[in-house]
Design brief:
about 45% strand, mainly beta
Length: about 160
């Protein structure tokens, strides 16, 4: 079964095109409960500049909390990462992304386990975020991890999604 979800990241830097991306989930659907979106400063330094390496382990094990860009969650809270239930993953928006350069956009699929494990991940480098500077659309496939990575991917300070 193939399912593509469409999300919008909205920059707080004034008028401009939103950063639009599509997340592609295939076999992962049976394993995941939540998705977590993180934007990290100094993106090119993450994984030694190799997004494939970033996707093999939990992001929280690869960087420090001060490297996470604080964004506004749908409930208005300022958080280092936004989590949402897969069932509610339609037209999710994140506000408050500051204008900046050299970001990494990391999306992690959290398993149904308690505590969750990393079921899959994606990573994309964003050279710059700002009005009129955002790419038209990024297609972001989630790379499935088999077996699931035995680490808790939840970013401290992120808010558990509600139904």
């Amino acid at each position: 079964m193939r399912r593509a979800l469409l999300f919008f990241l909205l920059c707080s830097c004034g008028p401009g095109e939103p950063l639009t991306f599509e997340i592609k989930l295939d076999a992962l659907l049976k394993d995941i409960k939540e998705l977590q979106i993180s934007i990290v400063k100094n993106g090119r330094s993450l994984g030694g500049g190799d997004c494939v390496k970033v996707q093999t382990d939990c992001l929280v094990k690869q960087t420090t909390i001060d490297q996470f860009v604080r964004v506004q969650a749908p409930n208005g809270a300022e958080v280092p990462a936004v989590r949402f239930l897969l069932a509610n993953a339609k037209d999710v928006s994140i506000n408050g992304i500051p204008v900046g350069k050299d970001y990494a956009l990391v999306i992690e699929a959290l398993s149904k386990d308690d505590p969750p494990k990393l079921a899959g991940s994606s990573c994309d480098y964003l050279a710059e975020i700002g009005p009129g500077l955002n790419p038209r659309k990024l297609a972001i496939p989630i790379t499935q991890l088999t077996p699931l990575k035995d680490c808790d991917p939840r970013v401290p300070g992120s808010i558990a999604p509600t139904n």
